[in-house]
Design goal:
Layout: H1 13-26, H2 28-49, H3 53-90, H4 113-147, H5 162-175, H6 180-211, H7 239-251, H8 263-271, H9 278-287, H10 291-306, H11 331-336, H12 344-359, H13 363-373, H14 376-394, H15 401-420, H16 423-426, H17 431-443, H18 454-469, H19 476-490, H20 494-526, H21 536-556, H22 567-577, H23 580-583, H24 587-607, H25 612-627, H26 633-649, H27 675-681, H28 698-708, E1 717-722, E2 725-734, E3 740-745, E4 750-754, H29 755-763, E5 767-771, H30 775-798
Antiparallel strand pairs: 1-2, 1-5, 2-3, 3-4
């Protein structure tokens, strides 16, 4: 987008941002008073017009409680809004913030029908607010992002977004102690007026910023973006993004299909997860042969035809997996030839074609038959959920085209599965979900299907899918067996990689424990007599590298000595030798002390593999300090005074992570690895590690750290910029104290980094999260959002569009 040249200087942008925030906060109390007065008026009007005694009593209770709580909520609104705005501003990086309207798929099962309906009503009320501010918010976002110094529009970072106000309203309403039902009624009343008030505020702020010459930033940053997920955008948890997901999902449905997917119908599907209808179970029991004979026959045949472990099929649902009567007679012979065939894929293609012809239906035909044969609403909902879920996965650009194509081929198999096994939706550990999650998760290691290793990864996936295509009805046991087979092929080199990972984890655990032990020792060292008067270089050395020497000695000692290695005594000797006023009185002792002192220091530094170059540089500076001890007493006293002045000017801060101008690697505030340890764990350092920003501290830093670490669970996939380009890695291990992270790259190699390096790379855009949760979970959560919005649309239509 084009605009006039910027008149506001960069230095003025923070001031302009602050003026916008102050304007919003100044009007907050008046806004809250308007909202709750309006809510009280609306409740009075509705109570007067209501004819149903039960509903009228509910409205009267909500009105009475509002009168009691209104003043407290008005008083609390301003401070709560200020905290919410400050928090939005200080977030160190965009994070997934959960919207009030979001209800995760798995959570639906935990709610009762009334709670689901309450959630829909709140979502409907909030959508009213967003609808009214849509145009002005679209104008404000680029301007507010500009004054916040962002290179592109990040709507979710706008601290004046309607969601911030809605969260604050929910916070003060919850603090009132009112029941959820009453809070829902309050929210329904205030949202309409909130939209109108925010529209006025946004228009006023837009006019102000344009008058100041602020140029709006463009949508879409200049930095390389992570491929988008099909089920959410960068601001995925905001209602407008969910609406877009719902629109995409609706487009793929048949035009004549009923809108069966609502929050209520989805809830009903999850709380009634009967795997097989009772009638079907009874019929199967009457016509089935002996259970034990049938199990043995099926297990043997399936093991022969699909190369699976018969023992893996000893599950309850396998009892109903009788060999179908229409199973092609040619399949066993063809499958027997697989082990000796040089054209496995061609054989499987031919088998899949034969199996499809035997059933007389393809992917489209099976989907249509599913719709025609669906018994009741739950069957229709199950079908729609699968279609939407697979459509979401098919749109996910993080997955390579061959993987998305494989998922499309799996769709009819899942449609058949959920007809008799609704546990697929409610059980995260269902074998079919684990199969999809494992395939999609592992595929993230490659950004190109032509990259080395992808073909070997994808070959067993294709084989498993073609095996599923030959089954009349896939069961959970089939997916479990297929998953075991593909894992066996994928993990052929797992032994070497596991040993490499175990060695890296052991090294990092030792490094973190040494760093934490050193940090505890620093308080003791700093309290030692003579520490405050010693030269700054010496003090920094003791509190830095030498504290790690002491920690290493303590951790490695098996003798139980009070001072293992004698390294604690070195500190006392060094403090005395580096105090000119003390050594001037006894130069003979200094002469005897220096050789042993230097030898002990070099011996100790070797235990942590401290860099030889920095060791020599420090020894040279230390000798200059020690030489002052041979000066006359008057000169020594002056040297002592100068040292004390320097010490007071540079008060040590052990937890800061830096050691002044001494040039030591960052040790106390961050884990430090010896060269051999760094090589074993693939340690990553910043190009200029000495200039890296210190770890965040204080309340603001704690909030930012929490935000940055919110989704960093083991299994998270990230993309990191290296000299060779962008590389995908998966978080394989995180230390107990969250200071060290170990990643496994696509080729099996390991890399590790400290928390500070990770946060710096994140802030600079050189490290970004690609996926932090299973793909099926994300796709089903998008289905839940679509169901909520369908329910909102139905409620609006039922009320005449209001």
């Amino acid at each position: 987008m084009t605009s006039a040249p910027v008149n506001a200087k960069p230095a003025d942008l923070p001031a302009l941002y602050q003026q916008c925030v102050e304007q919003a906060q100044k009007d907050s109390s008046l806004l809250a008073e308007k909202l709750f007065d309006y809510a009280r008026y609306q409740l009075q009007r509705q109570e007067f017009e209501m004819r149903d005694l039960g509903d009228r009593r509910t409205l009267a209770q909500a009105l009475m409680r509002l009168r009691e709580s209104q003043r407290a909520m008005i008083d609390g609104f301003g401070p709560a809004l200020r905290r919410a705005i400050d928090h939005a501003r200080t977030e160190g990086a965009p994070v997934r913030r959960r919207a009030l309207t979001e209800l995760r798929f798995d959570e639906l099962e935990l709610l009762d029908a009334g709670q689901v309906q309450d959630h829909v009503e709140v979502a409907r009320a909030q959508q009213m607010t967003l609808d009214q501010v849509q145009s002005s918010l679209a104008e404000l976002n680029p301007l507010i992002c500009a004054v916040m110094g962002m290179p592109g529009v990040q709507a979710e970072r706008n601290p004046l977004h309607p969601q911030v106000y809605l969260r604050v309203l929910q916070e003060v309403m919850t603090a009132s102690g009112a029941s959820p039902a009453i809070r829902m009624l309050w929210m329904m009343q205030v949202c309409e007026l909130l939209g109108r008030e925010l529209e006025v505020l946004y228009q006023r702020l837009c006019a102000f910023l344009r008058e100041q010459g602020v140029q709006p930033v463009a949508y879409g940053g200049a930095s390389r973006a992570v491929p988008a997920a099909g089920f959410h955008a960068s601001n995925d948890l905001l209602p407008e993004a969910a609406q877009l997901a719902n629109q995409r999902a609706t487009e793929m449905l048949e035009p004549a299909a009923p809108a069966v997917l609502t929050a209520a119908s989805l809830h009903d599907l999850l709380v009634h997860d009967d795997s097989v209808p009772a009638a079907a179970s009874a019929s199967a029991a009457e016509t089935a042969p002996s259970s034990s004979d049938r199990m043995a026959a099926f297990a043997q045949r399936f093991a022969k035809e699909f190369e699976v472990d018969p023992g893996a099929l000893d599950e309850p649902d396998s009892v109903q997996d009788a060999p179908p009567s229409d199973f092609p007679a040619t399949l066993p012979a063809e499958l027997d030839a697989l082990d000796h065939s040089d054209h496995v894929d061609e054989v499987l293609d031919r088998l899949a074609l034969q199996a499809g012809r035997a059933r007389g239906e393809g992917r489209v035909a099976l989907s249509e038959r599913m719709g025609q044969d669906a018994e009741g609403t739950r069957q229709a909902v199950a079908r729609e959920v699968v279609l939407l879920m697979m459509e979401n996965l098919g749109r996910d650009e993080r997955l390579l085209p061959p993987v998305r194509g494989a998922l499309r081929d799996l769709e009819p198999v899942l449609l058949g599965l959920v007809r008799h096994d609704a546990r697929f939706f409610s059980d995260r550990e269902h074998a079919a979900r684990r199969f999809i999650d494992e395939v999609t998760k592992r595929s993230l290691a490659w950004t190109d299907s032509e990259a080395p290793g992808f073909a070997a990864f994808f070959r067993p996936v294709r084989k498993a899918l073609k095996g599923f295509a030959m089954l009349p009805h896939a069961k959970a046991a089939h997916f479990d067996s297929a998953l075991k087979q593909v894992n066996q092929m994928w993990n052929a080199d797992q032994g070497r990689q596991s040993a490499q990972r175990d060695a890296a984890v052991k090294t990092l655990q030792h490094a973190e424990q040494r760093s934490l032990t050193a940090r505890n020792l620093q308080a003791e060292l700093q309290a030692m007599a003579g520490m405050q008067g010693v030269a700054p270089d010496v003090r920094d050395f003791i509190l830095g590298p030498w504290s790690h020497v002491l920690a290493e000695a303590r951790m490695s000692d098996r003798s139980g000595e009070a001072d293992p290695g004698g390294y604690r005594a070195v500190v006392a000797n060094l403090l005395w030798a580096a105090t000119p006023h003390a050594t001037a009185a006894n130069p003979a002792r200094l002469t005897r002390t220096i050789p042993a002192l230097l030898s002990d220091m070099r011996r100790g530094l070797r235990t942590i593999q401290f860099p030889a170059q920095q060791t020599s540089a420090f020894m040279e500076r230390l000798m200059q300090v020690l030489q002052a001890g041979y000066q006359p007493a008057g000169d020594a006293a002056q040297a002592q005074a100068d040292a004390q002045a320097d010490a007071q000017a540079q008060t040590p801060v052990p937890d800061s992570g830096g050691l002044g101008d001494s040039g030591w690697p960052s040790l106390p505030g961050d884990a430090w690895l010896a060269p051999q340890e760094a090589e074993t764990s693939g340690f990553v350092e910043l190009p200029d590690h000495g200039g890296a920003p210190d770890s965040l501290s204080g309340a603001e830093g704690d909030e930012a750290d929490a935000a940055l670490s919110a989704d960093w669970t083991v299994g998270t996939w990230v993309e990191m910029e290296t000299e060779q380009g962008y590389v995908r890695s998966q978080l394989s291990w995180c230390s107990a104290h969250g200071t060290l992270f170990l990643f496994k790259q696509g080729d099996g190699s390991m890399c590790s980094m400290t928390r500070r390096v990770r946060d710096t790379l994140l802030a600079e855009g050189r490290l970004r999260i690609v996926a932090s949760e299973p793909f099926v979970t994300g796709a089903l959560d998008a289905v839940a959002r679509a169901a909520i919005l369908n329910s909102v649309d139905q409620a609006q239509q039922a009320s005449g569009g209001n």
